[in-house]
Amino acid sequence: MSQPEPDDTTPLLRDETSSSEDSQDEDYRSRWRSIRVMYFTMFLSSVGFTIVITSLWPYLEKTDDSADASFLGWVVAAYSIGQMVASPIFGWWSNHRPRREPLVCSIFINLAANIYYAYAYLPKAHNKYHILMSRVFVGFGAGNVAVVRSYVAGATALRERTGAMANMSVCQALGFILGPALQACLSVIGERGVTVDFIDLKLNMYTTPALLAAVFGLINILLVLFVLREHHVDEDGRHIQAINYSSEDRVDVSEETVESIDQLAVLTSNILFFIVMFIFAVFETYVFLPRKLPPPLSMDMFAWTRKEAVLYNGIILCCIGFESILVFLAVKLAAQRFGDRPVLLAGLGIIFCGFFILLPWGNHYPKIQWADIRNNSLVSQISKLMTAPNSTVEPTGCPIEQTWCQYTPAIHIAQYFSSDFLIGVGYPACNVMSYTLYSKILGPKPQGVYMGWLTASGSGARTLGPVFVSHVYTLLGPRWAFSLICSMVAGAIILLSSAYRRLVAFSVRHGRIVE
Hints:
Layout (H helix, E strand, L loop, with lengths): L19 H4 L2 H25 L5 H8 L5 H28 L3 H19 L8 H15 L3 H10 L3 H29 L7 E3 L4 E3 L4 H19 L3 E4 L5 E5 L19 H25 L9 H6 L3 H33 L1 H17 L19 H11 L26 H30 L5 H29 L1 H21 L7 H4 L6
């Protein structure tokens, strides 16, 4: 069954069809309804990560006073660790059974984990470990991203793939934007909130966002059960099969080809995706870190208070989120005109410029905390006084224990804004092109396991990125940190250039179609 050709006027989340004849094609419409369910699943995956992130520390502190900054770091990383472990498992499952099964299972785990998080205050002891495990399980449930990507890859033709992947990235970006916004709206409930006695549940600003995420998960399960259908098309858009689910259904996609997948291209794509996600994790971390973690770069360089840093960086992140959506929309047109690999290469180049701009220069140095006090013993006493739990005075500037602050030039505010803008352009382009190109390299065979490894590599990068920042930046300063990032991006550019001819679609590599 041939499918209609998309054009540049295709709406973001609408079927790529314009004629009344095509609108009657039930298989085609069912396929795109199912793909939209995957968009919603991707949206909820990112919402599950961000909807509690801004209240994570105060909830942890309120629930268990033995929790410290080090433990908070593990709680923040728990989501990515859970996703990294789960992604290959759900990917393998989706290759051998109807994809509805791993999706429902993973979403249910996510739903239950959010309820677990909301009840983490209830045990009499070790509450912080209950919060930690709940975030691990939320991340484990988010391992269904591998299933989502493999489904969209298998349900789209080559000509539709980039647009569908860009749409999916838009939904992911919206989740990252709306998650903190929903948390902010629910903060009006306050810390005390209300108590539902018969289920012993406290509804407050910390628990309600997790419960809302659980409600979203229930809606997602219903959509998967009643809307999602199994669709698989070849690279020209012809249906290979369309399955209506029942308990006896098994996915058995016919093997069209015996040609092998280019494993070197697969490995290269995983490395590139790891670098792209590592860069994003570093960027996300130095722009804004949760309270009680090492302070963001802006607080060191511009002597902002925590309140100012949260406000200004929140505005910056929001702007970058909307900027990313515009980039995702532009990527589709750029890829159609120039190809996937040039867009990926251009994105890496823009990211390199974004971090290169951040390298300190000049004779202006950051303000040092307590620099106007000469007596070292007095410094120690005042530092203890000002950092005491009940103190209302907050020190600003570069912490005196970071010795690099005394000899490293400050980063100018114009450098900071320019870097944010460039990375906000480069990262979305690299993100969507990385797994779009990866899906094309894999070809028509089931991609669940391969997508699982790709998602795991991204989750590993998101785990290691904050560790990199907290150690290299804190000990050596921005000059070393951003120089190493520039070197990493340059290495990615060299790797992409050296493997450029191998990073082609499966059908192109085997001569079925001409690129």
